[in-house]
Amino acid sequence: MKLERLLSIIILLLNRRMIQAKELAEQFEVSTRTIYRDIDAINAAGIPIVTYQGTNGGIGLSEGYRLDRNILTNDELASIVSALRSISTSYGKEKHQRLVDKINSVVLPAHTEDFQQKTNRILIDYSPWDGMDRLRSKLQLLDEAIDSCVLVSFTYSNAEGEISERIVEPHMLILKGRQWYIKAYCLEKKDFRLFKLKRMKELDLDQDKHFIRRESPTHELFESRSNLNDAKVPEIVLRFKEEARHLAEEWFGMEELLPDEDDGWLVKKAFPEDEWLYSFILSLGHHVEVLEPKHLRGIIANRAEQIVKKYKNDKVT
Q1: Which positions fall inside the HTH deoR-type domain (predicted)?
Q2: Range 19-56 burial, b when 16+ CB lie within 10 A, else e
Q3: Distance between CA 162 and CA 158 in Å, rounded?
Q4: Residue 83 C-alpha from the chain's centroid
Q5: What is 233-311's CATH number?
Q6: I need a surface site. Which of 7, 27, 177, 206 has the fewest CB within 10 A?
Q7: Where do you find CATH 3.30.70 in the chain?
């Protein structure tokens, strides 16, 4: 990912007077053109990097300028390492490991043991239970397309099951709610859209068709969807049986539970109403009952009836 690569380049220049763009390109498996764009981004951030011409030339920090190694404390570096290891559970383990190694190399030997203890306190595992092989190949392909600024085509199935062929300009990979999305400019819709990776198939990069990155929103696509749904859906009230209290605590937290007069527990929460909500409530089975709103109660009852119809003629042995 670009941020990981930029940090790696900066740390390399802390420890080496000069390095060639070709060597950086080979190390990070990108084009030299991408490396020079990275250098421009680092310069724009206020770190003066210059290119030295000639046989023994390369890229290095401006003469007379050096970054203070103590610009980040050991605690801050440990937080970066912990974050990288967590991200690596679902994306780019090999690339992130190189940066982890470089950060470890700038920690003074006297502080190594304490530093290692701090980096091993927390690990957030983003990987799904059903494995990452197929998803990881999509992530790598889209990451390559973002770096190279090339168009991507794919077949997409939306939440309603509608199939369409899309050609997009990929801009950003986003992990939200344990799901990966690609934010991209859709040539058909002529606007930015979010596409869930699990709904994409037959991905193909067109290496001959490059695009110029557009100014794009960061989180507005998610926020607009959330705000829209919150406006449409009233507060949802769920009743859990006493024996299912552990399920309510697991999903909503102990603080959200309110005692019910029927020796159960109530949870009041605003949710966007969509297929995910219906599936979530049904997944809790007989342990939960929808009290409000009434129309949602009807939807769940109807879907439960449809499930019963599928199985009612089966003989139980």
Answers
A1: 2-57
A2: bbbeebbeebebeeebbeebbeebeeeebebeeeeeee
A3: 6
A4: 12
A5: 3.30.70
A6: 177
A7: 233-311
Cα–Cα distance, 44 to 275 (Å, whole number): 44
pLDDT of residue 15: 67
Q: What is the pLDDT of residue 227?
A: 45
Q: In the predicted model, is pLDDT for residue 221 greater than 80?
A: no
C-alpha distances in Å from residue 115, one per residue of 12, 76, 85, 124, 197: 20, 10, 14, 18, 36
Topology at the third CATH level for domain 133-218: SH3 type barrels. (2.30.30)
Would you tell me how many other CB atoms lie within 10 Å of the CB of residue 250? 10
Domain spanning 2-119, CATH architecture: Orthogonal Bundle (1.10)
Indicate if the pLDDT at residue 275 is higher than 90. Answer: no
- Whether the pLDDT of residue 168 is over 90: the answer is yes
**Sequence letter at residue 217:** P
**3-class DSSP string for 166-189:** EEEEEEEEEEECCEEEEEEEECCC
E strand or H helix at 33:
helix 32-44
- CB-based contacts of 5, cutoff 8 Å, min separation 6: 28, 30, 38, 95
CATH 2.30.30 residue ranges of the chain are 133-218
Which helix (DSSP H) or strand (DSSP E) does residue 156 occupy? strand 150-157
Q: Is the pLDDT of residue 144 over 60?
A: yes
Question: pLDDT (tens digit, 9 = 90+) per residue, 227-243?
Answer: 444 445 568 999 998 88
What pTM was computed for the model? 0.52
- Say if CB 169 and CB 187 are below 8 A apart: yes
